[in-house]
Amino acid sequence: MKLHEYQAKQVFADAGIPTPASTLADDVDGVLTAAEDIGYPVAVKAQVQVGGRGKAGGIKLVEDAEEAREAAESILGMDLKGYHVDRVLVEEAVDFTDELYVGVTMDRGEGKPVAMVSTKGGVDIEAVAEETPEAIASEHIDPAFGMHPYQARKAVYDAGIDAHLARDVASVLTTLYQLWDDKDGADAEINPLMVTSDDEVIAADAVMNIDEDALFRQPELAEMEAEAASGDELEQKADEYSFDYVRLEGNVGIIGNGAGLVMTTLDLVDHYGGTPANFLDVGGGAKAERIANALDMVFSDENVDSVVFNIFGGITRGDEVAKGINEALGQFEEIPKPVVVRLAGTNWEAGMEILNEDLVTVEATLESAVQRAVSYADEVNQ
Amino acid sequence: MSVLVDDDTRVVVQGITGGEGKFHAGQMLEYGTNVVAGAVPGKGGQEVHGVPVYDTVDEAVEKEDADASVVFVPPAFASDAMFEALDTDLDLVVAITEGVPTQDMARVKRRLSETDTHLIGPNCPGLITPGEAKLGILPGNIFAAGDVGLVSRSGTLTYQVVDNLTKRGIGQTTAIGIGGDPIIGTSFIDALELFENDPDTKAIAMCGEIGGEDEEQAAAYIDEHVDTPVAGFIAGRTAPPGKRMGHAGAIVSGSGTGTAESKINALNDAGVPVGDTPEEVADHIEGFL
Distance between CA A239 and CA A137 in Å, rounded? Predict the structure, then answer.
């Protein structure tokens, strides 16, 4: 779960990391009032969770009220890479002389957190990592002990940070690591950490990704998530049903159990010449109602022309799946989109007996089921 | 022969009084697994399916001589259960629980490095040596005893590939679901090493997915250390960058690492054919035998 910039900045500021003065606004008057309070120049920044906001016209630096009004009018309500902008952050424009980078993430290969510092802030850090990896100083942290103070100092020295800034940057890194640890961070990042003309450091941007599996013990952050839900209506609906769901661009709807098998089903749709409309994992042990909800999800996507339902039961039982399909499809006078079903594993024979074959097309193998669904989708588009 | 589990393995089930733990302890017993004890704090003295329950893993090990545990404990308490199991020097711990916080797993992995225990999972279906024992939630009826070692990050994809093999009359020595989380105990490399050293494993099927670099590292390991023929499968070719595809570990980062293409190329370079479909994986395996 990724926090919005304004949320991450609040979390960082509460922990004592210097951040520019800022106010969240959702209309033009709010922007103007905030800008007056902060004092021009200010930056007006769209609060949506996409990269490259600046290039897409979602961030504007303004010098006076007239420019602030123009910026507010153009950014509020705009569509930024598919996300509707309904809030902006009005932020003090920092007069800076240099841009640094600090970050903490989990190195999954090592199974350890890693703290990073670089003098190459203000640019895409992944590109820096690719092109000049030596420009990023990193320290792996032993999760049994946490970050030792010397490790923060070492990362700062290794990165070649100017001596008169070293103490402040090490202090920001230490706080950032502590936050990452306390809040169950996946990544925590300040890029850029600006150096002002007075030789102060200040977090000009803030990135905080929280481990979704740890939200149960981060109630304050879990509430933020509710406030900043995904912009996509179907993805919101999936949250309500608590499905693992990702919307894609294609027209073959996909429902299955288990992440690896659902991904494989997507891949096979592609392999047989179709385009997947979504990833939908009903999870383990799904009962009839959940199966019906999954069909409702996929039918709600107007791009979908056919559906492939692929279940290999371990803890999921074929008879429950069949009941759910019958219930969901039984309520329609006419089935909205053709559904191809493949059942295997636990209780699949019982499932096949229950399944009403007037409502669906049954296939015996994964490969044949996908091929059938792809051909149905093709027929619609002929 | 087999790896990690056989009909001598003595299993304690942590969380045996919960819904999942109880159901699957029953399924394991039915399959023939020696489930000798349960461990649930506050439930010592009870019995589940005729199996005695103890308050601690330590007591279960002492009284019933258990040498392996299966963890069916909710995510908030799962790392504590794994620490408890690791502190009793079991040979094998299998963590089925899905949704264990990643930072908890980093601490467990740190502790694991100080022990000789094999930890499988978390977020995995467990492992099975067909005809002898299963530890976890895999549906026993689709497996058959035979010559193929199977290792996979995904549960249901394991079943799919096993089904393709079994239907052709190709059985398995042991099948291991190592789990779909970013930080797991036993890696592909650990599993490949076990299969390489098992004289009865004549071929290996390895099912990976997008995210991380485990498959690339496994490919390098195969190139250097594995003589047993390996066939691969990689799920997630069509996954868009930056989206978590169900498994917490299954995400392609913005910079393009962890992609299916990178994994397939690495495996091909190590001489491992990668099937476009599960059926093609079975074709490759059949060709090896």
Answer: 38
